[in-house]
Amino acid sequence: MSAVLDPHDAHAHDHDHHAPAGWRRWVYATNHKDIGTLYLLFAFTMLMVGGVLALLIRAELFQPGLQLVNPELFNQLTTMHGLIMVFGAIMPAFVGFANWMIPLQIGASDMAFARMNNFSFWLMIPAAIMLVASFFMPGGAPAAGWTLYAPLTLQMGPSMDAGIFAMHILGASSIMGSINIIVTILNMRAPGMTLMKMPMFCWTWLITAYLLIAVMPVLAGAITMTLTDRHFGTSFFNPAGGGDPVMYQHIFWFFGHPEVYIMILPAFGIVSQVVPAFARKKLFGYASMVYATGSIAILSFVVWAHHMFTTGMPVTGQLFFMYSTMLIAVPTGVKIFNWIATMWKGSMTFETPMLWAVGFIFVFTIGGFTGLILSMAPIDINFQDTYYVVAHFHYVLVAGSLFAMFAGIYYWLPKWTGVMYSEGRGKLHFWWSMISFNITFFPMHFLGLAGMPRRYADYPMQFADFNAIASVGAFAFGLAQVYFFLFVIVPAMRGVGPKAVQKPWDGAEGLEWEVPSPAPFHTFENPPKLDATATKVIG
């Protein structure tokens, strides 16, 4: 029998009248749910912008020769597609999930610093506008690749400065959001919820927040050095003045590799919530999942130069980074083993969230194996900057981060909106996305094996067939996300659909299922009293 709320909180569902009305509710939002919604809508908007850039890239590559764009604009598109997707779509979306779910999962009334929460969201708007507007500046958008390698960045037009400023603002937003998440989790858990009783989603975000605080200043340092090289006569990365362009790569990837885990750890957390709910079993090896997450975070700081095997580093360095990269596959493998063990002999049903979670495990494992292949220096030297690398990181970031987000959206949407989405539409979205994603990115492995370099607007005839297939798949995948927004999200936001019960999923556990659907504007004004498992409220 489902537990009831603490008597002091019995009128939780009557608190909606406290919600401010109209535009003020959103502009001055301090409620974690409203800010979470703003983050998610912002992230989806940027996903669409970045997606349009990707489709322009794929349209150009549909056949050999130059069709739509010149090589300079092509490089601008690849650069801005990467920056917008990483900093504008994936990271803000996970912060949206954190804002919505962490207070609900730990029994907190809100995030620790509500006004700072508002500020960290609104900082992103001018940064996003600057990134998109860079296409209309003299000389066009930055065209140095999303990694912003010197010396190319030292030769770009004024849009490079706008990009650097935008990255600084986004970094400040990330750091503020991370401080908020850490303080909320450490200080505002309900009585009885020890750290080792927290939901896995909270654990993965706690570790991610520490990673963000550690590495965002490193990125800020790298781009500030680029800025002073451009305008103030320094020579950090300029060989003519005694600088070293390879030093930029070391600094960037010291940020960039933990960043990759920043974009996947919250996804692991979401999948660790969804799989036990639909297997109707406890998560297998909870403690080992927590330690594996911590291990991934620590090891992520000692693998950065596996992106740099072709820069002429000494063999000793190559060996160190090769073995440390192989080692990081161990805790990742522990997670995949634990998810499969959770499903083993479970009473599984395959509603849409579970389909996305199982789909995530399948495609993320493919991405993990290709990463293991790239970790080997002799192989990577041949695959460096080919489409094999493009295939690998899209399997990790699209099929990893994005698919896990979809699992989380379908899982928690009834709690967010108070209505059930259409199961048929959700499953159509899943199969349409899964098939078109693999049609798009699986052929890229073969293009890379055959030697097709990335970031080129033209290519020889031998690569034509696989590129045509990939481009068709990309347009199908893009359409699937438009379908998702129009036919799943919009009806849910308008309240169209059957009313959701408090706990729509049989096997779901956690405090978020102890409040009504939709979650009231104010929840847990008095901290809930928890049972021994810290998943239910004692009435």
TrEMBL record:
Cellular compartment(s): Cell membrane; Membrane
GO terms assigned for molecular function: cytochrome-c oxidase activity; heme binding; metal ion binding; oxidoreductase activity
Enzyme class: translocase
Membrane topology: Multi-pass membrane protein
Transmembrane segments: 38-59, 79-100, 121-144, 164-188, 200-227, 247-271, 283-307, 319-341, 353-373, 393-413, 429-448, 468-490
Residue ranges of domain Cytochrome oxidase subunit I profile in the record: 17-531
Main location: membrane
Family in the record: Belongs to the heme-copper respiratory oxidase family.
Protein name (database record): Cytochrome c oxidase subunit 1
Lineage: Bacteria, Pseudomonadati, Pseudomonadota, Betaproteobacteria, Burkholderiales
Gene: ctaD
